[in-house]
Amino acid sequence: MRRAAGQATIAVMSHEVRAVLATARDTPVSVETITVPDPGPGEALVRVAACGVCHTDLHYRDGGIGDEFPYLLGHEAAGTVEAVGPDVTEVAPGDFVILNWRAVCGVCRACRRGRPWLCFDTRNATQKMTRADGTPLSAALGIGAFAELTLVAAGQCTKVDAQTPATVAGLLGCGVMAGLGAAINTGQVGRGDSVAVFGCGGVGDAAIAGAVLAGATTVVAVDVDDRKLDWARTFGATHTVNSRNADPVAEIRALTGGNGVDVAIEAVGRPETYRQAFYARDLAGTVVLVGVPTPEMTLELPLLDVFSRGGALKSSWYGDCLPNRDFPMLIELYRQGRLPLESFVSEKIGIDDVEAAFGAMQRGEVLRSVVVL
Q: Residue 304 class from Cβ within 10 Å (0-12 exposed, 13-18 middle, 19+ buried)?
């Protein structure tokens, strides 16, 4: 029960919707009816229109991120605010929003120092969504958007132009923003720079698109799959290297006058590709890690090489984005025809097709499958 100020006690409403759950490690997902509560203070109820199938969801299913099963999967989403709780001012019912998983707090030490994109205390909904038997669900990245309705912190909703198709807008909620931001925000690619991107899935191709937007003139795409290298060209790669057949470091140096690139972006999350990125950069160049490693991975580099090559070794969290700043700007670039978000959408599927979409992702057949609700 909830009591509004000066009013009689009223019942807290809840909603039953279909959703995609990961119930145990390495187990196929299931589609179940779950219960979603009405929003409380600081929360928003969002009717999901579309949600991309991201590799992070597969990591959750396989236990690569945590073991707080059952998980409510899905986080790369856009939809319409259905209702908001008390004291919410960021959004209102009817707003078209992209969901983000870094709702900044505004008061932690990073926020106070003017670096809110590094916020150390990001917000999620306080209430839990549950299975039909009352078991609390862990929402993937605090969102859980493979569902007709989801409950999030109001700060996780970023209002954008409602004329944007939800199937492309939602992609900014994770993978595309991570790649674009790795190039533009973290790597700070500039006019005339040379860039190499290792791994040409959705995140890597977004990094390529970001490098092109920033004015890079040489953009080298590296992958082991010729099909992915073909995709990379459509996003602006000027050169491609299949690292099954050639040494990418030698090829990149040959393409850059023997020097290496100004910015090397690793979008795989593996030690061997990170080493390639490290040695493929110019002196005083930058390496950006945006691919997500698994917990058991380790990296060994000669410390003298780290010292003598100079430059910067960076990790990119969510593309160092600030959703309220970056999402509307990127949507405007899309509407101007300068950011080909629709090219990331390989297929549109239903909520019952997520497990099959994971298989297509693992086989490298798609950039993004998008669930349309």
A: exposed
